[in-house]
Amino acid sequence: MSSPSIPNYMKALVVQPDKTLAVAHNHPVPTINENEVLVKTMSVALGPPDLLALKAAPSSPGLLPILGCDWAGEVMQVGTNVTTRKAGERVAGFVHGGRSAERGAFAEYVKSPADLVWPIPEALSFEEAASMSIGTYTCVQALYHKGRLELPLLADDVSQKDEWVFIYGGSSSCGQYAIQLARASGFKVVTTSSPRNFDLLRSLGATAVFDYRDPAVVDKVKAVTGDTIRYGLDAIGLSDTQELSQRIFGSEGGKLLTLMWANKTRVREDVELIFTLVHTGLGLTIDMPGAHFPASPEDTAQMVAFAATIPRLVEQGRLKPNPIRRLAGGLAAISEGLNLLEEGKVSGEKIVVVL
């Protein structure tokens, strides 16, 4: 499929065999199939999944893989079977960057299955929209999908419940979206962060926020919730955060969803530890040391349904993007942003680069 307005080559940030990054100036523009869209990338967001993808990128001969997950841009081309999207439309989505020379967000063009992108409401900029997809999709999978926390699904007329959800790491990107979605489902939310982010998390709907470094944080959470926590999400996923999160659960135990597989640490037998990996919803099979995650049609179907829901939640004020930290310099600035993430210098905000 060709178009006179689409070049044959583009700039892309690729992973070299030694795991360093370089801007390729003559990388082929991806070719879409009948069910995909080709998007001119306007803004991209950076996050921990990009660091993991960089370390895991294949070192195979030939074209180098493109890094990057979160993107927002303008539809340039639609596949022959696509009826839901059109050229010129503002859209956002995410891909599993770092695996392929044909699919990665950190490039002038990105391709995606059409039913996994969502139209950007007028109230959102490209930069804000770029910050949302992988975080919100991860939280939807974690909070609502069968086999995860299985909270009641979102509804416009949701009733407020006298029940709590605990979220460790509320100021992280996923933590912020988890707070908003849990509140939109009618739950009260108790979360942890550094004190400088308390006001932000309260503005997103958190009922109670505590300093994660406070030695008495477990007792304080138990006191405010009446020792009733049955649902939890650890948005950080380290061994110590998983251990602390389990200790916060009430006497009946429950389910703790963690976003990091390698650090799965059990300290309570009555708290079920569950791992979720959003990429299974992209139709991808993911292998990790000691674990195999097959592609999940159920996860894909849930993502497709939620893609149609995001604009409405944004317009209703029930889903807000992360605070944005803009880096100037286009593709060349992404390495700087990844270094900031690696060094732990990003808190309560999402790094976004305009291309």
UniProtKB/TrEMBL annotation:
<protein>
    <submittedName>
        <fullName>Protein TOXD</fullName>
    </submittedName>
</protein>
<dbReference type="GO" id="GO:0016651">
    <property type="term" value="F:oxidoreductase activity, acting on NAD(P)H"/>
</dbReference>
<dbReference type="InterPro" id="IPR047122">
    <property type="entry name" value="Trans-enoyl_RdTase-like"/>
</dbReference>
<dbReference type="InterPro" id="IPR020843">
    <property type="entry name" value="ER"/>
</dbReference>
<dbReference type="InterPro" id="IPR011032">
    <property type="entry name" value="GroES-like_sf"/>
</dbReference>
<dbReference type="InterPro" id="IPR036291">
    <property type="entry name" value="NAD(P)-bd_dom_sf"/>
</dbReference>
<dbReference type="Pfam" id="PF00107">
    <property type="entry name" value="ADH_zinc_N"/>
</dbReference>
<dbReference type="InterPro" id="IPR013154">
    <property type="entry name" value="ADH-like_N"/>
</dbReference>
<dbReference type="InterPro" id="IPR013149">
    <property type="entry name" value="ADH-like_C"/>
</dbReference>
<dbReference type="Pfam" id="PF08240">
    <property type="entry name" value="ADH_N"/>
</dbReference>
<feature type="domain" description="Enoyl reductase (ER)">
    <location>
        <begin position="16"/>
        <end position="353"/>
    </location>
</feature>
